[in-house]
Amino acid sequence: MAQHEAADLTQAVLDRLADCQDPRFKQVMSALIRHAHAFVREVELTEAEWMTAIGFLTETGKTCDDKRQEFILLSDTLGISMLVVALNQLKAARAFQAQGGGASTPTEATVQGPFYWEGAPELELGSDIGQSMPGEPAYYHGRVTDTEGQPIANCCLDVWSGDGEGVYDMQMGEDAGMRLRARFHTDAQGRYRFWSIKPSYYPVPDDGPVGAMLRRMGRHPNRPGHIHMKVYAPGHQPVTTHLFVADSPYLDSDAVFGVRNSLIVPFAAHPPGEAPDGRHMNIPYHSATYDFRLVRAA
After folding, report:
1. Which domains does the chain have, with CATH numbers?
2. 185-189 — which CB contacts under 8 Å span 24+ positions?
3. Mean predicted confidence (pLDDT) in 81-95
4. Please, which pLDDT band fits residue 105 given cuts at 50, 70 and 90?
5. In angstroms, rounded to a whole number, what is the distance separating the alpha carbons of residues 26 and 18?
6. Is pTM, for the whole model, over 0.85?
């Protein structure tokens, strides 16, 4: 196909959107068509390569089930998930500043990842979600405030993580049920506290098409140790984020590009004895402190 014919084809496809009644959908699809056609022209994609790509996407779909989302993993490992998060939070930050901003910077967001499971149990503050799970005990505590420092009472922290070996409950078999997950609500002063384990670094699932892609790219599949949080309260903008373990490997090469410096947290080591919440610990443990800051909803 001659160069002018290739350009004509792109325009012909764009012209088919003339009757689209949804302006945003038309904008997104027009950009997708332009960029996808430009990509094909730039690399001079062969028919065999395109069929390989279709086969890859087909296998990605077949790998998905109710507990594994290979397309989220694909989006994460290509950096697209984090780019979407960063751009949307930047847009929200500009709107926040236009409204006068606040005394402190809101907590930064990062990727949700493929292991979120809606409906985690609601537990009392101070509960231990890491009991009988592999890993070193860790006490998490802090506050949730708005950007002016005002405490947010009854704010929900929806928490989940892998165990001390980096394995999530979704990877433990059909009978495992929910583990290392819970929803906590802050007290009247915006304080939260709970026990879990110190998260370990782990590889993202690499036994499917995304893992094969990473190996062919020459990339490792590892994520640094982290615990996930969805933090939300009425009248405030929610944030999906992580707390990263400060001494974990792979902070500088996270397979899903999710690390933000503001989310890296020291995990202090403690000998056996009385913990900050009065609990007596017979074994060494860790503690991590982090204060979340939410933006008031417009």
Report:
1. 3-69 (no CATH), 73-294 (2.60.130.10)
2. 185/122, 185/125, 185/154, 185/155, 185/156, 185/157, 186/125, 186/143, 186/144, 186/151, 186/152, 186/153, 186/154, 186/155, 186/157, 187/125, 187/153, 188/151, 188/153, 189/143, 189/151, 189/153
3. 87
4. confident
5. 9
6. yes
With 0-12 / 13-18 / 19 or more C-beta atoms within 10 angstroms meaning exposed / middle / buried, residue 148 is exposed
Which residues pair with residue 292 across a beta bridge?
144
Mean per-residue pLDDT over the chain, rounded: 93
**Strand duo 137-146 + 292-294: pairing:** parallel
Whole-angstrom distance, CA of residue 33 vs CA of residue 298: 34
CB atoms within 10 A of CB 88: 11
Question: Does residue 258 surpass a pLDDT of 80?
Answer: yes
Contact call for residues 110 and 199 (beta carbons, < 8 A): no
Backbone angles phi, psi at 122, to 5 degrees: -85, 125
By 3-state DSSP, what share of the chain in percent is helix, strand and coil, each rounded to 5? Answer: 30, 25, 45
Q: What is the pLDDT of residue 1?
A: 55
Q: At what angle do helices 47-63 and 209-217 cross, to 10 degrees?
A: 130
Query: Helix crossing, 23-43 with 3-15: angle to 10°?
Result: 160
Residues comprising the chain, all counted: 298
Q: Which residue has the tokens 């231990």?
A: 128
Query: How do residues 21-40 score in pLDDT, each as one tens digit?
Result: 999 999 999 999 999 999 99
Strands, E assignment, the chain: 137-146, 156-160, 181-185, 191-197, 202-203, 222-223, 226-232, 239-245, 264-265, 268-270, 273-274, 280-281, 285-289, 292-294
